[in-house]
Each structure stands twice: as structure tokens, then as C-alpha cells.
Design brief:
The complex is a heterodimer. By secondary structure, chain A is an all-alpha fold. Helix content of chain A is 78%, strand content 1%. Classes of the chains: A mainly alpha, B mainly alpha.
């Protein structure tokens, strides 16, 4: 960052005005609602909170949301590395198109990707009809939930890995080659360890996105309580039953998890951009 | 081999030998490329194709009729209205936030920067719940609103408010790293030459950040049109009144009106494709702007830029981040 001495800052006008407007807008629009949730969740008596969390249905939903997101983010990291590698390292016809397509899950409204994936993987869908004879059921199953979570998380991994791969110093690989390492050894012992923080960041971003996802999943999961129901959906269910305390308890857990992941990502990114800088 | 070539094409034989050690044998390269194409085709292109095929399954006439249903038209209208409110407000907020956070340094700045990403990391459903807790019947302001006859939750204002929440950070996130990288020299020069604050902003600052600004607006617009989870919680799903296009997709789909659902979805998918095209164009322009600014800044101050990364995580589809990190030492490369 360009260091700004306080004396020089005085020259530019508008600091007080813009900071005031920013804080006002942010307080009314963001802090107030967040505070409402925190207060509501903190106001729940401890035993009631534990009781809500210990319901089998809640446990199953949280388990699927966090476990499924971790699995999907892990798979995204593997496939995302592959895709990022091909897009950064090789040159081929149609590469720019492919590169632009990566952002599709991010640009497509979640409801649209939800119904599109469901129609593809349902029994009569383009893909589903081939999987059904094999006994693989994707739509309305946990597999479908994980597929959909992978779909929305992929761009986050690829877009984190691309700049990191581009910035990788070729001298590292040259040195490895000179010392007699094959490509496979170089990949495992030089490239992947160097990309470690970027891989972790990509994983965390995909995970964070997947945990909160709602639109894509409600269509493909079939929403069976205790089986394919995800935590955000359970919040909606609790709200519809006017169980505000229950909804706030689950939402509080998810908010805390989101803040935790946010902090981890923050740490990771400042650590590896520091190393690179 | 023709399809798969290494990006480096050294002329010297010695160099070529080194290059061979630095990449994979061609069958592996070809397999990796084909694998990627196949994977992305199956995973990304097929769902997109399914949307348009299903929408047109019964021909253009049915497609058009599905779009012209009264409820669908009013959902399109509500989406346009929401977007028309949220995008300008998000842009204004982005500009004010970027001015104070990008051009000034003050205590608490880092905390504010971190907080800026909050709306993107909270689950949309949780966002909706938060607004219900503030403005719903039993919420903090619910009683007051009710006694004044103002309906927010399960009405249009609620839809607009949650959309404002989820779209708030996009423009700011694009502008802050850009403004920070550009520093304040140009503005100071303008002021010294006698321009006033507004003139400086309009004629010096804004032209420097225009591509980043547009990029942020595109992302903000896409999210405003497509938001589902948060809107779903607060809208109440009143047909023809509080349904946005994504909600209309859900309702039609659940009523087994697949052509109708996919027709609305195809409009949204078309908008997403336009977004992708604009994004790709703006990305390189915004990256060039930031790279130029950084190159200039580095030359002037000889400081690195590790601290800036703190602004741009949360959504790596952010253009400045993608290309900015590539800027290392004195080289600027783009791919």
C-alpha cells in the first residue's frame, strides 16, 4: 500500500463526509440485523439451546451442511487444481472460452442452477437416465446435494489457484529438474507444498460458500428431514413454524462458523501474499 | 500435439531440453486438457444447455406464452424494480466507502475492511432471518412499523432491503484496492492546480477507476437479479406481488409447470451469460488499470503490496485480485 502520512492526507477533502456516510449505511443495513441475530441467539437459555442443537433432525442437517460442504470443497480442490493447471500451463483452442465459463456457477442465479441440475440428474434427465440402471441416484439424495455444492464452489478454487500458479517461480521447477526430479516428484514435493496456502484458501472459500448455500440445494435434495435436509432449509422450516428461538439458534451457529472461516481465510491470504511479496 | 502446445516456445535447443523437463509429455498434456474440457462440459455447460432446451421443449409459442403470464410479468417487474434501487445505492455506497477506505488511513480501517465482506460470507437464509428479527411482527421495530401501518416483511420493501444487504459489498470491494493502489498524487496535483473537491473526484479519480467501477456494478447487478435465499425468507411468496424472478422459478417448478419455470430461468441464464461476457471484457481492462497504478506506486515508494490482499478475499472472482497478484517485481503479465 502507498503509505499515507497524516499530514498529506489533510490535503484531500471529503474524509469525514464519506466515512460518516459509509458508517451510517453499514450500521443501518448490516450491523443492525447482525446485532438482532446475535442478541436473539444470545438470549436463548443455555439448556434450550442445547436441546435445540441435540434434536436428531438439527444434528443431521448441520452434519450434512458441514460434512457435505467439506467433502464438496475437497473434491473442488482436486478438480479445481486440475482445471487451473490446464488453464495456466497449456495453450489450446477455446481456452479463453473455457476460462470465462469457470465463473458460470457464480453468475447463474442459484434457483436456475438448482432446477437445471435437478432436471439433468433426475430419473429421466440427460445424465440421470444413464446413471439409474447403474443404481446411482443423484437427484433427491445426498450425492445430489454434494454435486450441487461442488458446482457452486468450483469457481472459488479455480480463481484462487490461477494467480498462485501464474506467480509460481519457474526457477523452483528448474532447480527440481536439475536435481533430477521427475515431473511427478516435482509436483508432489515442490509445486503442491508451495501452493499449500492457496489450496487451503480455495478450499475454505468453497467451503464457506457451500455451508450457507440454499437455492441450488432445495431443488436437488428432495428435502427429506434427517436425510437430505440442509441447515439453511431447517432455518426456513423453523421460521415457518414461528420457532424464532430455534431458527436463531441454528443461524447463530452458522454465523459463528462463517466468521471463523472468514478469519481463517483472512489469515491464510495475508500469510501467502506476504511470502510472495 | 497441435492441440496441446507448451506456453513457452524457446528457440535454443538447450533451452528446449530444459523446457521439456518443465512440462509434461504430450500424451499427458493432451489427456489433462481433454479431461478438463470434458469435466467442464459435463459440469458447467450441460446444466446451461438443459435450461434452454427445457424452456423451448414445446416450441417458441409456448415459451413466449409462459413468459407473458401475468404473475411472471409482475415478477420480472419486481426484479427490475429491486435492481433499479439496489444497484445505484450499492454504487453510491461503494464510491463513498472506497474514498474513505482507499484514499485515507485511519485507526479502525482494517477492521472496517474486514467487516465489508460480512454480507458475502453469511448464508442468504441467515440474512433473511436477521431482517425478520429486526422488522418482522415480533422484531425490534416490528411493533412500531405495524402501528404506523408500514409493512416491510412479506412485502416489497423487505425484498429490497435484503437485496441491498447482499449486494452492498460488490462495488466497494472492486474499488478499494484500485483506489488504494492509485494513491493520492493525482488528486493532490489537481487540488494544487485549483480544482475543488468535486471536480477532482469527477475529473481525476473517477476516470482512473471507471473499469473497476463498471466491473463492480456488473457483479452487483447479477447478484441483485439472482438473489434467492434471502429474498425467499422475507418475501412471503405472494403471487403477482412479492415474487421476484428467482422465486417465480421456484413456484412454477413446484407446480410442475416446467416450461414456465425454465422459461423464466432461461431469461435469468441469458442475463448471466451477458454478465460473463461483460465480466471477461472488463476484467482485463480493470486489471490493466490496477497494474499500471501499482507499477507507478511501486516505482514511487518502493513498497510491496502484501497488505492489500486483505481487501479482496471472499470472492476470488474479483478481477483486480486475480490479475493483481500476478504482478511480481517489475513485470506485468496478463494471460
Amino acid at each position: 500500500m502507498v503509505p499515507l502520512s497524516r499530514a498529506r492526507q489533510q490535503v484531500l477533502p471529503g474524509f469525514g463526509l464519506t466515512l460518516g456516510l459509509t458508517l451510517l449505511y453499514w450500521s443501518v443495513l448490516v450491523f443492525l440485523p447482525v446485532a438482532a441475530l446475535v442478541v436473539q441467539a444470545a438470549g436463548i437459555p443455555w439448556h434450550q439451546f442445547v436441546q435445540t442443537m441435540a434434536e436428531p433432525r438439527v444434528l443431521a442437517a448441520l452434519g450434512l451442511s458441514f460434512g457435505g460442504s467439506a467433502l464438496a470443497a475437497g473434491l473442488d480442490t482436486i478438480f479445481g487444481f486440475w482445471v487451473a493447471w490446464v488453464l495456466v500451463r497449456y495453450r489450446f483452442a477455446g481456452k479463453r472460452l473455457l476460462d470465462a465459463l469457470i465463473d458460470l456457477p457464480f453468475a447463474l442465479p442459484t434457483a436456475v442452477s438448482g432446477i437445471a441440475l435437478t432436471s439433468l440428474y433426475s430419473r429421466h434427465g440427460w445424465v440421470g437416465q444413464w446413471l439409474e440402471p447403474l443404481g446411482i441416484e443423484v437427484a433427491y439424495s445426498r450425492l445430489g446435494v454434494i454435486m450441487a455444492l461442488m458446482f457452486i464452489g468450483l469457481p472459488f478454487v479455480v480463481r484462487t489457484l490461477q494467480p498462485a500458479l501464474e506467480a509460481l517461480d519457474p526457477e523452483l521447477e528448474e532447480a527440481a529438474a536439475c536435481l533430477g526430479a521427475g515431473r511427478w516428484a516435482t509436483l508432489w514435493r515442490v509445486i503442491l507444498p508451495t501452493l499449500g496456502p492457496a489450496l487451503l484458501t480455495g478450499f475454505s472459500l468453497a467451503f464457506a460458500r457451500a455451508v450457507g448455500e440454499y437455492g441450488t440445494i432445495v431443488f436437488i435434495s428432495g428435502n427429506l428431514p434427517g436425510k437430505t435436509e440442509i441447515a439453511p432449509l431447517l432455518i426456513v422450516v423453523k421460521l415457518e413454524q414461528y420457532d424464532y428461538a430455534g431458527a436463531a439458534a441454528i443461524a447463530g451457529v452458522m454465523l459463528a462458523a462463517a466468521l471463523l472461516v472468514l478469519t481463517i481465510i483472512h489469515r491464510l491470504q495475508s500469510s501467502y501474499s506476504f511470502l510472495r511479496g | 500435439m497441435a492441440a496441446a502446445m507448451v506456453s513457452k516456445s524457446p528457440t535454443d535447443t538447450g533451452l528446449r531440453a530444459t523446457a521439456r523437463c518443465l512440462t509434461e509429455p504430450w500424451p499427458i498434456r493432451l489427456a489433462l486438457i481433454l479431461g478438463t474440457v470434458l469435466f467442464l462440459g459435463l459440469f458447467l455447460v450441460l446444466p446451461l444447455a438443459a435450461v434452454f432446451t427445457q424452456a423451448l421443449a414445446k416450441g417458441w409459442g409456448v415459451y413466449w406464452a409462459a413468459l407473458c403470464q401475468a404473475d411472471t410479468l409482475s415478477s420480472i417487474w419486481l426484479t427490475l424494480l429491486t435492481t433499479a434501487i439496489c444497484v445505484p445505492l450499492g454504487t453510491l455506497f461503494g464510491l463513498t466507502a472506497a474514498w474513505c477506505l482507499g484514499k485515507f488511513d485511519f485507526r479502525g480501517r482494517k477492521l472496517l475492511l474486514a467487516m465489508l465482506d460480512l454480507p458475502l460470507s453469511v448464508s442468504p437464509v441467515v440474512v433473511g432471518l436477521m431482517f425478520v428479527l429486526v422488522l418482522g411482527r415480533h422484531g425490534w421495530l416490528g411493533g412500531w412499523l405495524e402501528s404506523h401501518g408500514i409493512k416491510v416483511i412479506f412485502a416489497v420493501p423487505g425484498v429490497v432491503l435484503v437485496t441491498l444487504f447482499v449486494t452492498a459489498p460488490y462495488v466497494a470491494r472492486e474499488l478499494i484496492p484500485l483506489m488504494q493502489a492509485q494513491g493520492t498524487e493525482a488528486e493532490e496535483a489537481a487540488l494544487v492546480l485549483g480544482a475543488n473537491g468535486w471536480q477532482t473526484f469527477w475529473q481525476v479519480t473517477l476516470p482512473q477507476v471507471k473499469w473497476g467501477l463498471l466491473y463492480g456494478i456488473i457483479l452487483c447487478n447479477a447478484r441483485a437479479m439472482g438473489e434467492f435465499g434471502a429474498v425467499s425468507v422475507v418475501s412471503g411468496h405472494i403471487r403477482g406481488k412479492t415474487n421476484t424472478m428467482p422465486l417465480q422459478v421456484e413456484i412454477l417448478y413446484n407446480e410442475y409447470d416446467f416450461v414456465g419455470a425454465f422459461a423464466v430461468a432461461s431469461v435469468l441464464a441469458g442475463l448471466a451469460l451477458i454478465t460473463l461476457v461483460l465480466k471477461t471484457i472488463l476484467e482485463s481492462k480493470a486489471a490493466r488499470q490496477i497494474a499500471l497504478a501499482q507499477a507507478r506506486g511501486q516505482k514511487m515508494t518502493e513498497t510491496g503490496t502484501p497488505e492489500q490482499a486483505s481487501v479482496v478475499y471472499g470472492d476470488p472472482t474479483s478481477a483486480p485480485m486475480r490479475k493483481r497478484i500476478v504482478l511480481s517485481g517489475d513485470r506485468i503479465h496478463e494471460h
